[in-house]
Amino acid sequence: MMRPMPAPLILAYDASCSLCCRATFWLARRDRQGLLHLVPLRDPDLLKLAPELAGRPLEREIHGLDLATREVWAGADLLRPIARRLPGWRWVAPLLAIPGLPRLLNRIYLWVAARRFRRTGRPPFA
Questions:
Q1: Which of 78, 80, 86 lies closest to 113, judged by CA?
Q2: Number of independent structural domains in the chain
Q3: What is the sign, positive or negative, of the torsion defined by CA atoms of 120, 81, 96, 33?
Q4: Which domain holds residue 94?
Q5: Is 124 helix (H, G, I), strand (E, B) or coil?
Q6: Cα-Cα-Cα-Cα dihedral of 15, 5, 49, 78, to 10°?
Q7: Is residue 70 part of a domain?
Q8: In what order do the strands lie in the sheet with 9-13?
Q9: 61-86 b/e with 16+ CB inside 10 Å = b?
Q10: 126 in a structural domain
């Protein structure tokens, strides 16, 4: 039995962050079904497309919005919704729900996100 196709997911990312851009390019290359809509967080249309993201710490971590349910995820919590939308990576989604793993992944994600500008020497959000 085929599972229904998941709804598209808007991903709001920091286009001024080279690490964020590399990650979104990696995702875009694997998104053969067009289910990931990658939108820079400073895009003037972002909040028109995803008003649920208003007031959220978009510059601190990546955020995603399911266009069918309007559910919002942030940081490492986005890994499961993203994996469910990428052919060849769907098998990873159940593994990401192993008890304790989401919390560990979020800690790692937030640690990396807080330090992502150190390599470039550019102050964050300049």
A1: 78
A2: 1
A3: negative
A4: 9-114
A5: coil
A6: -40
A7: yes
A8: 36-40, 9-13, 63-66, 72-74
A9: bbbbbbeeeeebbbbbbbbbbbbbbb
A10: no
Residue 111's identity, in one-letter code, is W
- Residue 73: strand pairing partners: 64
The reply to whether 122 falls in a domain is: no
This prediction's pTM: 0.85
Instruction: Please give the distance of CA 110 from its chain centroid, rounded to a whole number.
Output: 13
**Both tokens of residue 52?**
């649920």
120 in any annotated domain: no
Please give the structure tokens belonging to residue 49. 């497309």
pLDDT, one tens digit per residue, over 59-85 is 889 999 999 999 999 999 999 999 999
Each residue's pLDDT tens digit, 12-46: 999 988 888 999 999 999 999 999 999 999 999 99
